Amino acid sequence: SDCCFLLTLLPQMDGSCDACEPDEAQPATQVCRTCSFAFCPLHADKHASSTHHLLMPYNQEKQGTRPWLPQSPGKRDTVTVERLRCKEHGQEGSLYCKPDEKIICVVCAVQGEHREHEIITLHEAYVWQKVNLMHRMSTEELEAYVNTQFDETLHLVDLKEAFLTASAAEKIAEITLETERLQEEMDNITHQLCLLEKGEDQAIGPAVAMEALKAARESAQRNLMLSYWGCHISGIDVHFSQ
């Protein structure tokens, strides 16, 4: 049944209480059908009151066995999900602490921090949580909530796209303006060179003046390229940083 587990990792019964301290273990009188743990009268009462599990008398003639566990022919052993394995005891997470809403192992339920809590099976926990969810939110409400979240996320994507588009347009405008300014500077220098070529009387030698203007023209060309690539790279950085 759903309430039974193949707890092959548990120690064999030796007639003593599994909940007592090992060096002070009392004789077992009851056995939990769900947890497959043996208890002395004191711990049996505590376990029954906290978990509401069915206890049965301990049979001294069958020590070392757990006869109530199902042994269906061909049925494979339970598969332990490593993600749900108890990190403290290394046992399979096969029970559920209802107050803490946490999957726990049988050792946690009997000897660990959850021993005084209400413990239920995983199947009972699934049904309980499912009912709670249905009470809090109907199928239509859940669908509406998902749709709302999707619409809000889509709206954020649209805002992001609009912001990036505006940033790109701003950078393109800056590049265009800088290109036009540098082009004017180059045109002016070219005009000055033409005038010098035609001039005959200057304060300095024509050759020296022409070399100076040519150098200025080359400098303007370099500035044009550096400005263009600087703005271009800046635009790319802004785009990817967003």
TrEMBL record:
SMART domains: BBOX (SM00336)
Protein keywords: Coiled coil, Metal-binding, Signal, Zinc, Zinc-finger
Source organism of this protein record: Sphaeramia orbicularis (orbiculate cardinalfish)
Gene3D superfamilies: 4.10.830.40, Classic Zinc Finger
Residue stretches in coiled coil: 165-192
Record-linked Pfam families: zf-B_box
Signal peptide: 1-19
Residue ranges of every copy of the B box-type domain listed in the record: 81-122
Keyword presence, Coiled coil: yes
SUPFAM superfamilies, alphabetized: B-box zinc-binding domain
Transmembrane feature ranges: none
Protein name as catalogued: Tripartite motif containing 44
One MF term in the entry's GO annotations: zinc ion binding
Lineage of producing organism: Eukaryota, Metazoa, Chordata, Craniata, Vertebrata
